Amino acid sequence: MQKDLRPVGTQLIARVDGPQWSRGARAIVVARRTYPVDIFQYRKAITGVLFQSGAYEEFSPSELRRTFLALVNPKPGLAGYRFEGLRPLVRDFHDGRFSAAFPGHRLEAS
After folding, report:
1. Each residue's pLDDT tens digit, 67-89
2. Which domain holds residue 35?
3. How far apart are CA 2 and CA 100, in angstroms?
4. N or C: which end of the chain has fewer CB within 10 A?
5. Are 59 and 74 in contact (CB under 8 A)?
6. Do residues 31 and 83 touch, judged by C-beta distance below 8 A?
7. What is the C-alpha radius of gyration for the chain, rounded to an integer number of angstroms?
8. Which DSSP string corresponds to the chain?
């Protein structure tokens, strides 16, 4: 497994534009996991990233390095976040669970 997985709670800034974000967008790591990809037990590492807009995207370690600049070590209170799926993530986002990562950002009603 590659070692370049950022810890949950790490704040990020996008270096490049993407399909759901613009350069300079703020984000936070909310999930780190690996999964098997073949019969030889090779495991692929992924990092789940939540953007200030509420968009969620998953990245390989190399994609993460190319796409983001890491700002700081894990944000206190968010480092222990346990990713349990997209529905709980959306609920947690709307409940303000990530407001410490995005100061000054107000959630707009959808």
Report:
1. 998 876 667 778 778 888 889 99
2. 11-94
3. 29
4. C
5. no
6. yes
7. 14
8. --S-PPPTT-EEEESS--SS--TT-EEEEEEEEEEE-STT--EEEEEEEEETTS-EEEE-HHHHHHHEEEEESPPTTTTT-----HHHHHHHHHTTTTTTTSTT--PPP-
- Quote the number of domains for the chain: 1
Domain-embedded: residue 27: yes
Q: Name the pTM for this structure.
A: 0.77
Q: Is residue 78 part of a domain?
A: yes
Q: Residue 84 falls within a domain, yes or no?
A: yes
Alpha carbon distance 79, 56 (integer Å): 17
